[in-house]
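agent> Task received from the user: take the single chain below, predict its 3D structure, and emit structure tokens. No templates, no multimer pairing.
agent> Plan: (1) validate residues, (2) run structure prediction, (3) serialize to tokens, (4) report one or two observations.
agent> Step 1 OK, no nonstandard residues flagged.
tool_call: predict_structure(input=
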Amino acid sequence: MKAAFQIMIKPFGPICNLGCRYCFYLEKKNLYKNASSFHMSPEVLESFIRQYVASQDAPEILFAWQGGEPTLLGIEFFSTVVSLQKKYADGKKISNSIQTNGTLLNDQWCEFLSDNDFLVGLSIDGPRELHDHYRKDKNGEPSFDAVMQGVSYLKKHDTRFNTITVINDKNSLHPLETYRFLKEVGEGHMQFIPVVERKPDKAAKSLGLEFSAPCSASTSKNLSQVTPWSVKQRDFGDFYIQIFDQWVRHDVGTVFVQFFDVALGNWLNAGSGLCQFAPECGKAATLEHNGDLYSCDHFVYPQYKLGNILNKPLHELMDSDRQRTFGSDKQKKLPDYCRQCEVQFACHGDCPKHRFGLTPDGESGVSYLCQAYKRIFSHVNPQLKVMAQLVRSGRLASEIMPIMMMEDRKKEDIR
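)
tool_result: status=success, residues=415
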């Protein structure tokens, strides 16, 4: 049986109508300085869809379209996508997701997305002041109103969407305000992504890039070299702890926070379903506009380029020794400090992108967010244990809420 994998597709490369200060992907245009266009060609598009469907034994194939801003390509491009998927489906179910900043959504877009059952990942960082701090257009103008207009179109046409929120140095200080806002404007599915970027080293500067590549040499100074907008470790821990305390008492079963769902999977020994917290990675690569395939979305650098799908079959690139090594190195290079940690089963050392810190003994390869994850997973452990027991016994995880209510009342009585 063929090994399953996923591809994050960048059909317009890093091109975007916004200029979000913390975006790690806008700089990738400097890797393609000779490109006359970042528009994925019909040849690359058809070759990818054909190869991707043929390479999967699963009954359902998920296409994930990202950027940059993929809606800049227009509805006609994605109409072609749907037609090609039908052409090569071979009896398999095809699903699509598209990540967008939402500013270009209108009636026509949302009608198309709904009619073709696209799941939309909408980037929004919280209420106006928090969102607009970093998410501005190329002229430095705020984008909040345009995004909220996009939300209104999504709701008008019953287009399925999740919210995707980047945790940065600003909104991390307002966890409950952010959470409550997302509950109000979204549809109950939230994904949070911490921004952790380092200032460019010599290698990055030589490529014209603004951030250091993942897994570049670790030094004792690395933790002080993160960008100003990167989330602080303490604030990151507080962010999730405060939201969890609200969620576990009031919203289990109605609000789905990806981080908590993934954590519960690890408490159930069912696997995380997210490469960040899985023992190994390497099953989620990124396809650039010209057919170049990279090991991961966060590793779009020359040293992690696997090849081009027009020159070598997609399945061979994903099954190559280089990609296998990339995936297994996550576990093999885990520091002893992490292997002995009581929450190692929950984070598995975090994403390799973040592993530029040093252990107390000076060993390299520990996550910048290590101490935050220790706090978070230790804090949620009692409740997730109970939720896991509920699920194993055939009950609903949401039954944790009345249990929490009883415990809170007992604590109040003691006081």
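agent> Step 4: summary for the user.
The longest strand covers residues 93-100.
agent> Done.
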